[in-house]
Amino acid sequence: MLKIENLHATVGETAILKGLSLTINAGEIHAIMGPNGAGKSTLAYTLGGRPGYEVTEGSATFDGQDLLALEPYERAAAGLFLGFQYPVEIPGVSNLQFLRESLNAQRKARGEEPLSGAEFIKLAREKAALLRMDMEMLKRPVNVGFSGGEKKRNEMVQMGIIDPKLALLDETDSGLDIDALRIVGEGINAIMRKGDKAVLLITHYQRLLDLVKPDFVHVLAGGRIVRSGGPELALELEEQGYEAVA
């Protein structure tokens, strides 16, 4: 599904990714762990097409397409979803309207019919219930007045509605209490743990991985993946730290 080969990327004048290679197949969940400044968020933003992140060498293909040649909205329409470490607030924009317009824009790009208002509300209710989120919160401006945990749950509702092929989740567990962590973990499993989907989960901690149970864990350090393994690698990191394991 996703194949990254020798990816180099800079932010401003600083080289961050320095030859990163990774393959993710449909049906797999991969976790990336590593110290601060290793390039984890840069990888997610580069794949998502965030401005300011320049690829200087290497390639990334998604479902056979040259991912790096696509505009961000084309990447989204192709089935890519980027979850942010710090979801932004959008004052004055209704959550429901934002999600309906986003979904129907993607459906149009894929040659599909847009959902009617009634069809969309039914879908939104279903996904909000999955994340135990009150529908009234979806009527508010995007993330405005939400706690950190509510923003992350709202983002998972967005993911459920958009229904991507590949989710890039950048520290989704950041700022979550125990209950919110469990709800978000269950949401990721319910939405993305399917044979035709995949997840790249960026995290610092084992606690989310106890819920999501990745197939592979990778250590990213110095702009490249320096070690890969199964879920047991995350336990080694928890016990010994990055220096000892990497």
UniProtKB/TrEMBL annotation:
Keyword Nucleotide-binding annotated: yes
One Pfam family matching this protein: ABC_tran
InterPro entries xrefs: ABC_transporter-like_ATP-bd, FeS-cluster_ATPase_SufC, P-loop_NTPase
Keywords: ATP-binding, Nucleotide-binding
GO molecular function: ATP binding; ATP hydrolysis activity
Record domain ABC transporter: where: 2-246
Family indicated by similarity: Belongs to the ABC transporter superfamily. Ycf16 family.
PANTHER family, per database record: ABC TRANSPORTER I FAMILY MEMBER 6, CHLOROPLASTIC
Name under which the protein is recorded: Fe-S cluster assembly ATPase SufC
Species in which this protein is naturally found: Sphingomonas ursincola
